[in-house]
């Protein structure tokens, strides 16, 4: 190239960059990170950032927006294996458009409040989970699900969790964000987790299958079988002590039985050395709030066995 020639111009693809950043945030979410802090700003939730980036993928950047702003967001995030302290979030400010907030975000600086030894062990497990997650993203075993999904929903939470919540199948919100239990049922599950004195960072959440069935229909036995190996490998890595099966589909699939869910409550089943508790799905509780008390009794039973302090009542759960 001669001195008077300019280098070729590479087209700026906001959608491609936004997708790359969103996938990186999904990886952080699977590692248990729920929020990030950016220098000179307050806080925001990791899922909110994913929503913002999804909007850019779909609609592009509004005018006028400087490309340098979105490029700043694409700067590398601190690796999950580097232990830090005081994980922070960017708080919500005054209402702004999704694209405006995304376009003005500086480079994220993620920090973890765990020891170096814990971080290394968790990083090793998370790397193993990430490999399986990539396989899931490329899976086409169920043609109908693969051809209609927006995102696979691998699982999210602590790679070293004692407790796993095991649901049925992703819904529309989960398919949009690539994360389990983020809709109305997910909010109720969050209340249950909080009532236990825990957060989503302390546990792991996954489903019987990794893709949303069209129309939110129940997953077929064949679809569950196609995902069974992914589930087994996830649990082999996490090695939880407890699994809570949410709903009849999850309970029957995991324990390979057809016993009515009402008869399975209030007791532990053994599955490969894991204590398995079955209870009603949060979506069912939204339809029949009277069952909340039953679920709270099941959760209290679980907490006692886990050695967690058990409050008599929990606002929003009973």
Compact summary:
Strands 3-5-4-6-8-7 form a six-stranded mixed sheet, with helices on both faces. The protein has a two-stranded antiparallel ribbon with strand order 1-2.
Q: How does the major sheet shape up?
A: 6 strands, mixed
User: What fraction of the residues are assigned to beta strands by DSSP?
Assistant: 5-15%
CATH architecture classification of the largest domain? 3-Layer(aba) Sandwich
**What is the residue-averaged pLDDT?**
79
Output the helix-strand order. HEEHHHHHEEHHEHEHHEEHH
The strands making up the biggest β-sheet line up spatially as 3-5-4-6-8-7
Number of domains: 2
Class by SSE composition: alpha/beta
C-alpha geometry? globular
Number of helices: 13
Poorly predicted tracts of residues: 6-10, 64-112
Indicate the CATH class of the largest domain: Alpha Beta
CATH homologous superfamily grouping of the largest domain: Uracil-DNA glycosylase-like domain
The CATH topology annotation of the largest domain reads as Uracil-DNA Glycosylase, subunit E
Account of the protein in words:
This protein is of the alpha/beta class. The protein has 2 domains: 14-103, no CATH class; 116-306, 3-Layer(aba) Sandwich (Uracil-DNA Glycosylase, subunit E), CATH 3.40.470. Helix content is 44%, strand content 10%. The protein contains 13 helices and 8 strands. The chain has helices at residues 14-30, 46-59, 67-73, 98-103, 116-137, 143-148, 172-177, 184-195, 221-238, 248-255, 261-264, 282-287, 292-306; strands at 35-37, 43-45, 156-157, 163-167, 204-207, 242-246, 268-271, 274-279. The strands form 2 sheets. The protein has a 6-stranded mixed β-sheet, sandwiched between helices. Helix 1 (14-30) runs antiparallel to helix 2, helix 1 (14-30) packs parallel to helix 3 and helix 5 (116-137) runs antiparallel to helix 9. It is globular and about 55 Å long. Mean pLDDT is 79; it is low at 6-10 and 64-112.
């Amino acid at each position: 190239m001669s001195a008077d020639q300019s280098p070729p111009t590479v087209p700026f693809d906001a959608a491609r960059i936004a997708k790359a950043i969103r996938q990186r945030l999904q990886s952080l979410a699977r590692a248990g990170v729920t929020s990030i802090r950016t220098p000179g700003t307050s806080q925001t939730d990791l899922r909110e950032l994913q929503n913002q980036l999804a909007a850019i993928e779909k609609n592009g950047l509004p005018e006028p927006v400087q490309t340098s702003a979105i490029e700043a967001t694409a700067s590398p995030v601190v690796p999950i294996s580097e232990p830090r302290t005081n994980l922070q979030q960017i708080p919500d400010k005054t209402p702004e458009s999704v694209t405006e907030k995304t376009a003005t975000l500086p480079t994220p600086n993620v920090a973890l409040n765990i020891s170096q030894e814990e971080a290394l062990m968790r990083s090793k497990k998370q790397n193993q989970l990430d490999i399986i997650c990539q396989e899931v993203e490329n899976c086409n075993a169920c043609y109908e699900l693969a051809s209609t999904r927006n995102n696979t929903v691998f699982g999210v939470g602590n790679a070293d969790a004692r407790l796993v919540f095991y649901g049925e199948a992703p819904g529309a919100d989960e398919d949009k964000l690539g994360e389990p239990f983020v809709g109305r049922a997910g909010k109720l599950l969050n209340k249950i987790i909080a009532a236990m004195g825990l957060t989503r960072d302390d546990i792991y959440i996954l489903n019987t299958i990794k893709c949303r069935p069209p129309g939110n229909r129940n997953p077929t036995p064949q679809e569950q079988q196609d995902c069974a190996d992914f589930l087994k490998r996830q649990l082999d890595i996490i090695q939880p002590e407890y699994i809570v099966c949410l709903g009849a589909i999850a309970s029957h699939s995991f324990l390979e039985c057809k016993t009515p869910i009402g008869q399975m409550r209030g007791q532990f089943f053994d599955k490969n050395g894991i204590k398995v508790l079955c209870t009603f799905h949060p979506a069912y509780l939204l339809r029949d709030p009277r069952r909340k008390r039953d679920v709270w009794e099941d959760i209290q039973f679980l907490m006692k066995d886990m050695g967690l302090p058990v409050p008599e009542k929990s606002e929003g759960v009973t």
